[in-house]
Amino acid sequence: MFSAVWPGFILLRKVLIRLQIRPCLCWAHFGLFGPVWRIPHTAHTQKLAFPSYPPKPTSFNGDCIRRANLVLSQLEAIVRNYDILLTAMEALAVAVINQIGKAPEGVPVAAKELLHFGSRAAVDQTLSRLVRRGSLIRVGRGLYVRPVEGRFGVRPPEPATVVQAIVERRGEIVVPHGAAAANELGLTTQVPMREVYLTSGPTRKLKLGNQIVELRHAPSWQLALPGRKAGALIRALAWLGPEQATHAIEAVRGRLSESELNAVVELRRMLPTWMAQQVSKLASHA
Q: Which of 95, 115, 149 is the last residue in one of the domains?
């Protein structure tokens, strides 16, 4: 029985403490008259004591009612402010979605581009909520993109589209990894399991749903001639290594045009020594 009554007593005690009413229980008062109710007055030395239980209808009840009304008014103000805050947050979320929706498919939008809607903290919180809802995809630090709605549901945008948008936005040089370049030239049948790109910017990872796109910082000679087969050959040789470079050079002799072979030969001054020796074999053929 005590365990069943105790939670109710604890709740009553919390309410009384919130109203600044402190019941002082002693055995004599509880057995004969009930609890002695001590209510703080404006003067710290003055206290009212009611030896009877329950309290008689005196000014004590009016003081309790005033305190209860004050607490209720404060709660109502909190609820009103919370409703106003929710309305402002929803309005900010709609504005952010509309702004990101104006961008082309797969083009990420940085959080700094949305600061005209509110403070950085408010924008970050709104973006986090939209990501949890599934309305946005967090590609990287401070980068967000809207998912693509297709016939079979919602999916992330194509990695190549996102990478190309980052290249145009930040002015970086981004090229496919050597494994993808070797597969493109027919030097290997292995298909890369992960999307990896070489970049002139910092190394980082982009997350598109369940797919991870990795951007690796690379030296300038591995980023030469982007978008050309001559540059793809350089990156493929770097991935294959010196052991397989001779076979790769012989394999591409008849696959590249004369202009592409000349472009590879002209890059010898930038290449490592072992690669420059292998590329020199194309000079006579070019």
A: 149
Q: What is the CA radius of gyration of the chain?
A: 36
DSSP reduced 3-state for 196: strand
Residue 222: which residues within 8 A CB-CB, separation 6 or more?
175, 178, 198, 234, 235, 238
Query: Nearest Cα to 280, choosing from 28, 111, 269?
Result: 269
Which region among 130-139, 145-154, 181-190 has the lowest average model confidence (pLDDT)?
A: 145-154
Q: What is the 3-state secondary structure (H, E, C) of 115-165?
A: HHHCCHHHHHHHHHHHHHHCCCEEEECCEEECCEEECCEEECCCHHHHHHH
Domain of 117 in residue numbering reads as 70-149
pLDDT in tens, 97-118: 888 888 888 888 888 888 888 7
